[in-house]
């Protein structure tokens, strides 16, 4: 039976970071993964450019049933620490909107950097390995796998969540937690497009392909970015952000003209062009196809001077406070992250070790920590992986 000080299950962002850090401490580290390649989600992230972190990182950008849990890790290995690592490897990068940082060339640069860190630390990476069962002995763990049995003192679960099954995601990490009596908050898809109710789908089908700068509000949160109409529903950055806070049956409120006052625009236009039809005015502000769906044709053909008070109120409501109740989400197939997961109250925020199971650690997406769109989930992977690497 092969022995390592540390075995990490999962060769993703958090697992590789943890492995490199543990190796630097002189620990013998074995990383096991069922996939044929390491870092699959890193490779495909950010449209192949990897949004690896954000200039502005703090606990307010994360959801968890224990909202304080992320503070320790994020403060001990920060976005600046990861940026420093990226620059040490001379990886060119750039900033986009909202402080998001991307590789100039390819996401593979980040993966290659992590793999290089692991090699320098003496980490052994073994792919195409399925974990069949895990046993806890008195002071160690035994793993029965498709490639033999392995033993370790510290076992790290870095298997991620359920999002994007085509990248090899599985509920394995949740099963291990439950095996050792650790609570799982029910997982669901996060950062995911919405599908529509049948009647809304039929009504909004002509809008497929349209993207509009808008503000989406849900559960006391608001996100000002693009909303994209698809042939199945709604997507785009503002929608993905809102999906982290959505629960079935909950409506979204969308402001299609953020920063503009419809009443004031109408009054100014009415004075200059009283005979102009409403659709002409709105056509300068929004795509004509969207306008045609938001408002009745009779109102759109009304001259501005003839719009009544009731019509004005309806106009304001439709353009600034349009409501829609999604039918559901696209699910894990397209979700960028998994909400829920291993209960953070059962894990040390300093070491990532399970409080009641010595030597068992959980890092990254498998935990009940869900970041916003914009590099926050990768930063959680780097921070939680780094912290566990100091203790395993």
Note down, in words, how this protein is organized.
The mean pLDDT is 95. The chain is α+β, with helices and mostly antiparallel strands. The protein folds into 2 domains: 2-188 and 339-389, FAD/NAD(P)-binding domain, CATH 3.50.50; 193-329, Translation factors (Elongation Factor Tu (Ef-tu), domain 3, Beta Barrel), CATH 2.40.30. The longest helix is centred in the last third of the chain and has 14 residues, at 376-389. The two termini are 21 Å apart. The strands form 5 sheets. Strands 1, 2, 7, 8, 9, 10 and 20 form a 7-stranded mixed sheet that branches. It has helices at 13-24, 40-44, 70-76, 79-88, 108-120, 172-179, 198-204, 237-243, 262-272, 278-283, 288-294, 297-300, 309-320, 376-389; strands at residues 2-9, 29-32, 51-54, 62-63, 93-95, 100-103, 124-126, 131-136, 141-145, 148-157, 184-190, 194-195, 211-218, 221-229, 233-235, 252-255, 322-324, 328-329, 337-342, 360-362, 370-371. A hairpin with a 2-residue loop joins β9 (141-145) and β10 (148-157). It is elongated. 31% of the residues lie in helices and 25% in strands.
């Amino acid at each position: 039976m092969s022995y390592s000080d540390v075995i990490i299950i999962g060769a993703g962002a958090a697992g590789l970071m943890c492995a490199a850090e543990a190796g630097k401490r002189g620990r013998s580290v074995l990383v096991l993964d069922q996939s044929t390649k390491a870092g699959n989600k890193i490779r495909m992230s950010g449209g192949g450019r990897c949004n690896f972190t954000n200039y502005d990182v703090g606990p307010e950008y994360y959801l968890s049933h224990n909202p304080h849990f992320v503070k320790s890790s994020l403060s001990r290995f920060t976005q600046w620490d990861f940026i420093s690592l990226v620059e040490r490897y001379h990886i060119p990068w750039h900033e986009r909107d909202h402080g998001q940082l991307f590789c100039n060339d390819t996401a593979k640069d980040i993966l290659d950097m992590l793999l290089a860190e692991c090699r320098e630390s003496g980490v052994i990476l073994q792919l195409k390995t399925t974990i069949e069962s895990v046993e806890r002995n008195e002071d160690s763990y035994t793993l029965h796998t498709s490639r033999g049995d392995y033993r370790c003192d510290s076992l790290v679960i870095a298997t991620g969540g359920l999002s994007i099954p085509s990248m090899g995601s599985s509920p394995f990490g949740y099963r291990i937690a439950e095996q050792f009596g650790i609570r799982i908050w029910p997982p669901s898809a996060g950062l995911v497009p919405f599908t529509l109710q049948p009647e809304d789908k039929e009504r909004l089908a002509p809008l497929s392909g349209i993207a509009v700068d808008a503000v989406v509000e849900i559960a006391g949160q608001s996100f000002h970015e693009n909303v994209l109409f698809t042939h199945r529903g709604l997507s785009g950055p503002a929608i993905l952000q809102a999906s982290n806070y959505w629960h079935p049956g909950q409506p979204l409120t969308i402001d299609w003209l953020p920063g503009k006052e419809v009443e004031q625009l109408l009054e100014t236009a009415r004075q200059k062009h009283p005979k102009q039809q409403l659709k002409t005015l709105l056509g300068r502000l929004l795509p004509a196809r969207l306008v045609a769906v938001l408002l009745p044709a009779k109102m759109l053909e009304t001259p501005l001077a003839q719009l009544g008070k009731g019509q004005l109120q309806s106009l304001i409501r439709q353009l600034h406070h349009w409501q829609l109740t999604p039918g559901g989400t696209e699910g894990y197939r397209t979700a960028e992250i998994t909400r829920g997961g291993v209960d953070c109250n059962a894990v040390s925020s300093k070491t990532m070790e399970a409080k009641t199971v010595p030597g068992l650690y959980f890092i990254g997406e498998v935990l009940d920590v869900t970041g916003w769109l914009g590099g926050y989930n990768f930063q959680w992977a780097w921070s939680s992986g780094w912290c566990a690497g100091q203790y395993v």
